[in-house]
Write a structure and sequence with these properties.
heterodimer; A: alpha/beta; Rossmann fold; 13 helices; 16 strands; about 40% helix; B: alpha/beta; eight-stranded mixed beta sheet; 8 strands; about 15% strand; globular
Chain lengths: ~400, ~300
């Protein structure tokens, strides 16, 4: 019997972590992710988890300790935001190259500067090429479900890569939402009782050396398996999602198509903005506009073929980026989406809106404006900023 | 403690055939510390000479579980390994005692890794951090570090027409670590196996964070013949430039008090990195260095508890 409760995104993620009950959590406080660690620390203090919680002195040390613990065979989790994730950047690709299935909650927050604590996706986007799976959440439920699934996906022998599950800072992390919780036993059964790590540092009978100096004669060959595992992860993500849907009823994919079947004008977005966009799609549909939404849930591995197929029949497409590349052909999502559409026999007209930097409000009016632009797409620039003052 | 014969009969945990320089003191330190452990060990190495020279893929010189993560995070990385071990031990998945050891050079310990080390010590992990201290960034070509002594020639603070090598005094990391109040802190050298292995054995017998700062002459960066490594380290002790001492639960003990203290110049003149100090005009600098060596030595000896004598 599913338990329906009210939880903020941070509470939902902390609850998932309690149920996952990892061997080691190493984390450092940062707004707006702090609460996850605070709630989890209370679970530790109250003996509700078996976790060895390492209260490190920085996010750099958090990720470094996660690498050490995961190399020792532990099931390991952490959480952070923005500058904290940026401080981890050096170690993130090491975790991927060492094939350590660390699971991280990233509560999206704008990178400094100027310093800001509110949501945009610049922190996650800057980490997109580090070999981590990246799963975005539209709401607390998706964050909760995503974190539980991420453990299975990351630890799958076909993947063995670290994964980050994101929520939009404050918008999801601090807003109460109605979510369905699984039973502790259901989570335990779904993720399995322990991580299997036969070649860990703590296999004392068979000593392994991990993290060797890898020069021009081997490095290339050792990097490619990360790319192969990342590509192969798509299948695993879908398998895990299917099993999750069968057991618990909530279905997830790499992307979510919302009223795309016959859509002429399509918005592509990530995260909480998709919830707002769905309301606008419904409203436009009631007025006879064939509007649709493509939500990208998994950004790494990048579901290029799936996106191209989903957008193939559209007339116009607007990609919403909550981060900027500061001079490339639009935001990070736009450049990648536009690239996969290049080989479509009939290409929809595609434009880019960069919005919501530093937590700038995105409302139905702005999304309506995007659909308006799509209906007169010929007059639109390739890339424009949405919701910014002149 | 184990005698030399006994140590020599134990299994080598860092094999030969690695790529360290001839005459390098670092593998001597590592081998002797590993030999001192009766229990299995797990090693984390910071980026540095030891790391790059012992683990060039597809080879490894390590006969023990070994992990390298990055330059500045050996303390945090080993914290994670130890945290996993503790979690497994609590769950009954592992019962054997394991000694967790981090090896970092002075760059990875005094400078870029200081925060990570400090955090690991403060959190009380059961580990031994060993700094193999060759007093500069030797792996990247003899750049100055916080451990480089005043007057030493390095490639980033070279001796020139108007400057005489490093201007600043080195930081006293051993004292910084001791200020953390951890159960065991020691200074040793490559070149006194009895002192080094005794201290390692003691460290392994104590639960909680332990730290050893081991002076490691570097023939390349210091400029001397490979066969002189151990003698130069001993000279550092005999001149009180690098005292052998330990701090056990806050109690200081100076392990070697030279009867006739040699002048610091006897140590300095054995190495190319100090050659310019002996040119005319630098006499005052040599006096300053001797004065500072004396000051630090006296301050250290004063920290020992007063010894009760007679009845």
């Amino acid at each position: 019997m599913a338990k329906v409760v009210a939880r903020t995104g941070n509470e939902a993620m902390a609850e998932a972590m309690r149920q996952i009950n990892p061997d080691v959590v190493a984390a450092y406080p940062i707004t707006p992710a702090t609460e996850i660690v605070m709630i989890f620390a209370k679970y530790v203090a109250d003996g509700l988890v078996d976790t060895n919680y390492v209260a490190v002195e920085s996010e750099h040390s958090a990720m470094s300790a996660c690498v050490g613990a995961a190399a020792a065979g532990a099931r390991v989790m952490t959480g952070t935001s923005s500058q904290g994730l940026a401080l981890m950047y050096e170690i993130l690709p090491i975790a991927a190259a060492l094939r350590l299935p660390i699971v991280l909650s990233d509560v999206n927050r704008a990178l400094s500067g100027p310093i800001n604590i509110h949501c945009d996706h610049s922190d996650t986007m800057a980490a997109r090429d580090f070999g981590w799976l990246q799963i975005f959440s539209e709401n607390s439920q998706e964050a909760y479900d995503g974190l539980i699934q991420a453990v299975r996906i990351a630890e799958d022998p076909r993947v063995h890569l670290p994964a980050m599950v994101t929520t939009d800072g404050f918008i999801i992390s601090h807003c109460l939402d109605k979510i369905e919780l699984l039973e502790d036993s259901e989570v335990k059964e779904f993720i399995g009782p322990e991580r299997k790590a036969p070649n860990s540092l703590l296999n004392l009978e068979k000593p392994v050396s991990i993290g060797l100096l890898d020069l021009q004669d081997y490095y290339f060959e050792h990097r490619l398996p990360v790319a192969e595992a990342m590509r192969g992860a798509k299948k695993v993500i879908l398998e895990v999602a299917d099993e999750f849907a069968k057991k618990f009823g909530r279905k997830y994919g790499l992307c979510e198509a919302y009223k795309l079947e016959d859509a002429e004008h399509v918005v592509v977005a990530l995260g909480s903005t998709c919830g707002t966009a769905k309301v606008v799609v419904d409203e436009l549909r009631s007025k006879g506009v064939r509007a649709g939404l493509l939500k990208i849930r998994v950004f790494r591995p990048f579901p290029g073929e799936e996106i191209a197929a989903a957008l193939a029949k559209a007339k116009t497409v607007a990609v919403l980026d909550r981060s900027d590349s500061w001079s490339a052909q639009g935001g990070q999502v736009f450049t990648e989406v536009r690239s996969v559409m290049f080989d479509l026999p009939v290409k929809p007209k595609i434009i880019n809106f960069i919005y919501g930097l530093g937590g700038r409000e995105i409302d139905q009016g702005q999304i309506r404006q995007v659909y308006d632009c799509l209906q007169k797409v010929e007059k639109q620039p390739l890339v424009q900023y949405l919701g910014v003052r002149e | 403690m184990a005698n030399l014969k006994e140590l020599a009969s134990r299994k080598e945990l860092l094999t030969g055939g690695h790529r360290m320089c001839p005459g390098c003191g670092a593998p001597i330190i590592v081998r002797q510390i590993l030999l001192a452990s009766k229990d299995p060990v797990v090693v984390v190495a910071a980026t540095g000479c030891l790391e790059v020279s012992t683990t060039i893929f597809p080879y490894t010189a390590w006969n023990v579980p070994y992990l390298h993560n990055a330059f500045e995070n050996a303390g945090a990385t080993l914290s994670g390994v130890e945290a996993a071990y503790s979690a497994f031990k609590k769950k009954g998945k592992i019962s054997q005692h394991v000694n967790f050891i981090a090896f970092g050079g002075d760059g990875g310990t005094y400078d870029i890794g200081l925060q990570s080390l400090s955090g690991a010590l403060e959190r009380g992990h059961d580990l031994l951090y060993v700094c193999y201290n060759n007093e500069a960034y030797m792996n990247t070509g003899v750049q100055r570090s916080g451990a480089t002594p005043k007057g030493a020639n390095t490639t980033t603070e070279p001796a020139g027409k108007v400057r005489q090598g490093k201007v600043e005094w080195r930081k006293d990391l051993t004292e910084i670590v001791a200020a953390h109040g951890i159960p065991y802190v020691a200074q040793s050298i490559a070149g006194n196996w009895a002192d080094l292995t005794k201290k390692a054995e003691k460290a392994f017998s104590i639960r909680g964070p332990k730290f050893m700062n081991v002076l490691q002459p570097c023939r390349l960066g210091w400029g001397y013949k490979p066969e002189d490594t151990l003698n130069i380290a001993r000279l550092a002790v005999e001149s009180c430039v690098w005292p052998l001492y330990e701090v056990e639960n806050g109690v200081y003990k100076v392990n070697s008090k030279p009867k006739a203290k040699k002048p610091a110049a006897d140590f300095l003149k054995t190495q190319e990195r100090f050659r310019h100090l002996f040119k005319p005009g630098n006499e005052q600098l040599l006096i300053e260095i001797q004065t500072e060596v004396d000051r630090r030595w006296e301050a250290l000896v004063a920290k020992e508890p007063a010894v009760r004598t007679g009845a």
